[in-house]
Amino acid sequence: MITFFILLSIFFFPIVSAQGEWHLLHASVGVSAMHMQLLHNNKVVIFDRTDFGPSNLSLPPHLCRHDTRDLALQTDCTAHSILYSLPTNTFRALNLQTDTWCSSGSVLPNGTLAQTGGFNDGDHVLRMFSPLDDDDDDGNCDWVEFPGYLSERRWYASNQILPDGRIIIVGGRRQFNYELYPRSSNLYSLDFLRETSDVDENNLYPFLHLLPDGNLFIFANTRSISLDYKRNRVLREFPQIPGREPRNYPSSGSSVLLPIIETLAVQAEVLVCGGAPPGGVSAAGRGNFLSASRTCGRLKVSDENPNWVMEEMPIPRVMGDMLILPTGDIIIINGAGSGAAGWEAGRSPVTTPVIYRHSGDFNDTDRFSVMSGSKIPRMYHSSAVLLPDGRILVGGSNPHVCYNFTNVIYPTELSLESYSPPYLSPSFSSIRPQILSLNKNIRYGQPFLVVFNLCEYRINDGVLSTNIIAPSFSTHAVAMNQRMVVLRAESVMKVAENRYRLTVVAPSTPEIAPPGYYMLFLVHSDIPSYGMWVKIH
Fold first, then answer.
1. What does the pLDDT average to over 462-477?
2. Could you give the 3-state DSSP secondary structure of residue 275?
């Protein structure tokens, strides 16, 4: 693992400026990255859809997909999914049988990706991808599919891992209900989804966040609720976000649950940013591309009487991916400055990421920082995920019905690139912690040890934190299952020159951090270590 990060530092972090740096990893991986999921063996599952014809990557010899229900190509010898390896910067083809267009997913506590739904022959399908450990050869690992597993069609649905390890699957096109994996005989009606559907829908891919009290926050269009999913009861409806701007697909803003801090009284606060103006989707369909929303709203849902606090981004954005960085700051990346999500519906690519510092005074004008831009537009059907080394992996962009590389404004994009935030600059090497060892299996509420090196330890109180992040399933500007928990430290002891032993306490409950794999980062003076994987039981 440590060798892996040394190699990354050599190949991917030459110089990082104050606004960060972009690096092209592959000009083409043969598949457009509509969906991405980082796994605990430092590999990323990437996949597109299957119903548009051949991709630009062949399957291995004698391995073709035969599907009499496919809408474009019933015998297809090209891949629509790949497995990308971070340590080697290589990829190989995976074999999808059914259509994953606009689907959803979650990683189970054992590290298996459970991927749900899609379109046409894939809309009722459950798919599994089970990675091997990072030291094993996974050349034989591939998708395993279970047709007809889901109770209802799940196209543009959202998933969330639950405290007991089950997955809740919410909504989808004309699906005003939710179901659970593993499946039961129950299908739960949710009128809130019907109520939030307007003439442009604007309630697809609803934002889901598991709250520390065990209930589920659901945001759709401009409204949000707290749902007791076990009893199928809406516990409360929160105030409507100001401004009337729809935030969900196809208006496609984005959302995160801000870091949960176990060192303080546990609170839950949701951030929603971007989207399209009212009527923006219909206007884009007529060729009138209205400016995207530039507002963000924060709602402290754990307050007795919560109200939205609104801020403005420096750049309007729709279809932006919003990810939690190891520092706890939020990066907003990809997307467009006008229009909406959908075929040919976006204009004015926003290639400059913005980093939002959520702590501090709301009146601070420096909470948003504009970073350096990519040369590649990432429009509809792009995606991004946080990597253990602190970079952001970025891919995809295909606003066309098929792969189209010529005579279009925004050609189909098959490349992969990475963005290195400013904290990865070598100038911070003396204050960057290096994790040497830690307990990789940790239990709720139990202390565990982390041994680390640090050349220049600034001992001021609060300068060192231990942050765990659940990797997201990312698609359509939604980062499903993403969450950060700031752990409580008990003690730090110097054990040798530049070497320290930290005692930290695992998350207190599975409601705060559902079971499974997390990246653990030490952050010292706002500079993170490279992340190490831990499994929470």
1. 95
2. coil
Side chain identity at residue 500, one-letter code: Y
For residue 62, pLDDT beyond 70: yes
pLDDT digits (tens, 9 = 90+) for 301-317: 999 999 999 999 999 99
* Alpha-carbon distance values, 140 to 31, 48, 60, 68 (Å): 20, 21, 12, 26
Q: Which residues of 218-230 are buried (b: 16+ CB within 10 A; e: fewer)?
A: bbbbbbbbbbebe
Angle at Cα 491 formed by Cα 488 and Cα 492, nearest 5°?
115
Amino acid letter, 509: T
> Taking Cα atoms as reference points, which of 49, 103, 93, 48 lies closest to residue 72?
49
Which amino acid, 395? G
User: Which tokens hold the place of 31?
Assistant: 């598949």
Give 83-98 as a DSSP string: EEETTTTEEEEE---S
d(CA 267, CA 265): 6
Please give the Cα distance from 146 to 124 (Å, whole number). 9
State which H helix or E strand residue 438 sits in: strand 434-438
Largest CA distance in the chain: 67
3-state secondary structure of 464: strand
Reading the block at residue 431, the tokens are: 């204050």
- Say how far apart CA 39 and CA 113 lie, in whole Å: 8
Report the alpha-carbon distance of residue 453 to residue 524 in Å, rounded.
11
pTM of the model: 0.95
Radius of gyration for the alpha carbons in the chain, expressed in angstroms and rounded: 22
pLDDT of 108 over the 60 cut: yes
CA distance 369 to 536: 34
Q: What value does the mean pLDDT take over residues 353-381?
A: 90
Per DSSP, the three-state class of 213 is coil
Q: Please tell me whether the peptide bond between 182 and the residue prior to it is cis, using omega within 30 degrees of 0.
A: yes
In contact, 26 and 91? CB cutoff 8 Å: yes
DSSP bridge pairs for 59: none
Q: Measured between alpha carbons, how far is residue 114 from residues 99, 130, 180, 529 in Å?
A: 15, 9, 12, 29
CB 393 within 8 A of CB 384: yes
Task: For the chain, give the number of residues.
Answer: 537
Identify the sign of the CA torsion 104, 107, 108, 110: positive
Tens of pLDDT along 488-523? 999 999 999 999 999 999 999 999 999 999 999 999
Q: Is the CB of residue 388 less than 8 Å from the CB of residue 533?
A: yes
Which pLDDT score, from 0 to 100, does residue 458 have?
85
Q: Give the separation between CA 19 and CA 12, rounded to whole angstroms.
A: 16
CB of 308 within 8 A of CB of 297?
yes
pLDDT tens digits, residue range 404-419? Answer: 999 999 999 999 999 9
User: What's the mean pLDDT in 239-258?
Assistant: 98
For residue 187, which amino acid is it?
L
Predicted local confidence at residue 15, as pLDDT? 59
Alpha-carbon distance 269 to 257, whole Å? 6
- Mean of the per-residue pLDDT values of the chain: 94
